[in-house]
Write a structure and sequence with these properties.
The chain is of the alpha/beta class. The protein has 17 helices and 16 strands. The protein has an eight-stranded parallel barrel, surrounded by five helices. Strands 3-4 form a two-stranded antiparallel ribbon. The chain has a two-stranded antiparallel ribbon with strand order 6-10. Helix 12 packs antiparallel against helix 16 and helix 16 packs antiparallel against helix 17. It is globular and about 60 Å long. The two termini are about 25 Å apart. The C terminus is likely disordered.
Length: about 475
């Protein structure tokens, strides 16, 4: 009883502090790989996530790897009627889309070079385990970064990337070119989750360490060149505004905390930076993540993590005081997989209709295992088996919103039954509505952590969410 009263009091304190503007910043970096937000037209984006109200909690990350790829045509060919003979990177003077100008834009070469390479190869996790090669590398050189795009492998130089950020995208924030350390694929079932490779050949281990050192050195060199270009631009031109620069730091398990802080201090030098962008944080061993974040936090610079792969990683970053930007494409991934993000947010002023609905479903025998939330706090909606009876799903006739009290466009207008019908009918509108809700709900969760960090109760909030998710796994939605 005391615990329930304590949780209620904590929620009331958080509700009272929602409008507190003194809270430290914590923003979601939405991945816009092809230069646009997934699923949403410009009009729908402005209606669902107005720039005036969402700029404090949402930034748009633009991967230059796609926005600056242009087709190559033979001399005399009409670009409108002839097929291109190839594609290449270039940095022309084209105007940024007007719809994106009101939003805070964060330019990156790629959010995750390793993931881009894995997606291009099209291999599954099982297929990777059967390969002879046990590492995934980006194949960069000292003069360019090799990026995998929908148009094949392309090479981009620091000079081309500078013109793309400064002249084409007119980004407000930018991180320089970076290279990622090779990722070690799992060799056999004896390898543990902390990255220890029980049967790794010594020669292979030395080769990997050598490539990790080379990737770190290339990232440092490109950062110095990138910052020098912008400093020269300040002296030669005053027509273009200079974006705030984030220094990239490549992480791997072999680097120590002291080496990490020394690298940041040397990279900053006598200049100023907006913060530190951590590259490859999500590939670190679990026991190495917190020490790395603490080491970077000690430098007093804000931290941006460009990519996360699960809700647990997002929550892990939310409780770290030094983290200011969390990059993720989870809302898009969940929508693509037909999953609705339904985790309860402690402290939100939602009514009790959602809990009452669960109790009614249980009373009518609809407590089906398919309604259990997964590890990301999502409910799968897709009918994967042809003989599945869609009427057995708890959302089949549910007229309530996805989350009672949620103010997203999906929950305000549409019901669970309608969204479930769209998913079963394989309508694109179903994924669009799921994306709108997933992104809005994730932004609300991150904003709740922002307030909790200001009041030093972020770990209590994390415990409430995790325990609530464990409770959700026992019941139905």
């Amino acid at each position: 009883m005391a615990t329930a009263e304590s949780n209620k009091r904590r929620s009331e304190e958080l509700d009272a502090a929602v409008s507190d503007t003194a809270a430290p910043p914590l923003r979601l970096l939405v991945h816009a790989v092809d230069g646009v937000v997934p699923y949403l037209t410009p009009t729908l984006l402005h209606e669902c996530f107005p720039p005036s109200s969402s700029s404090s909690s949402m930034w748009i990350g633009i991967a230059v790897r796609d926005t600056c790829v242009h087709p190559i045509h033979k001399d005399g060919d009409d670009p409108l009627t002839s097929n291109p003979r190839g594609y290449t990177f270039s940095s022309p003077q084209f105007e940024v889309d007007r719809w994106i100008e009101p939003y805070v834009r964060f330019a990156v070469p790629s959010f995750d070079l390793i993931q881009d390479l894995d997606e291009k190869s099209g291999e599954t996790t099982a297929e990777k385990g059967n390969r002879t090669t046990t590492t995934t590398t980006c194949q960069s050189t000292d003069h360019n970064v090799m990026l995998w795009t929908p148009h094949g492998r392309q090479s981009i130089t620091p000079d081309m990337y500078y013109h793309a950020c400064q002249n084409s995208l007119k980004s407000l924030h930018a991180v320089s070119l970076f290279d990622m350390a090779p990722r070690i694929n799992k060799i056999n079932d004896d390898d543990d989750d902390d990255g220890n490779r029980s049967q790794m050949p010594r020669r292979l281990e030395k080769n990997i360490q050598k490539q990790q050192t080379a990737a770190t050195q290339r990232t440092r060199t490109w950062w110095k060149s990138f910052r020098t270009m912008f400093e020269s631009n300040d002296q030669s031109s005053s027509t273009l505004s200079k974006p705030q620069l984030w220094i990239p730091v490549t992480l791997h398990d072999k680097v120590s905390e002291d080496e990490l802080t020394t690298e940041i201090q040397e990279g900053v030098g006598d200049g100023t930076v907006a913060g530190v962008a951590l590259i490859g944080w999500n590939y670190l061993s679990t026991h190495r993540r917190a020490p790395m974040l603490n080491a970077v936090t000690s430098t007093k610079y804000p931290i941006a993590v460009l990519s996360t792969r699960s809700l647990r990683e997002v929550l892990e970053l939310c409780v770290e005081q030094g983290v200011a930007v969390i990059g993720s494409n989870l809302p898009q991934t969940w929508a693509l997989q037909k999953r609705a993000f339904l985790v309860d947010i402690p402290g939100e002023r939602y009514d009790n209709r959602k809990r009452t609905r669960r109790e009614q479903d249980q009373a009518h025998g609809k407590d089906d295992m398919s309604a259990v939330l997964d590890q990301d706090g999502c409910l799968p909606l897709d009918c994967r088996q042809e003989n599945d009876d869609v009427s057995l799903h708890p959302w089949y006739r549910d007229k309530s919103p996805l989350v009672s009290g949620c103010q997203c466009l999906t929950c305000l207008i549409h019901s669970r039954a309608y969204v479930y019908h769209l998913v079963c009918a394989k309508e694109m509108l179903g994924e669009m509505l799921l994306f709108i809700h997933n992104l809005h709900h994730l932004l609300q969760l991150i904003n709740r952590f922002r307030i909790a960090r200001h009041h030093k109760v972020e770990h209590d909030l994390l415990q409430e969410i995790m325990s609530q998710m464990l409770d959700e796994r026992k019941g139905s939605v």
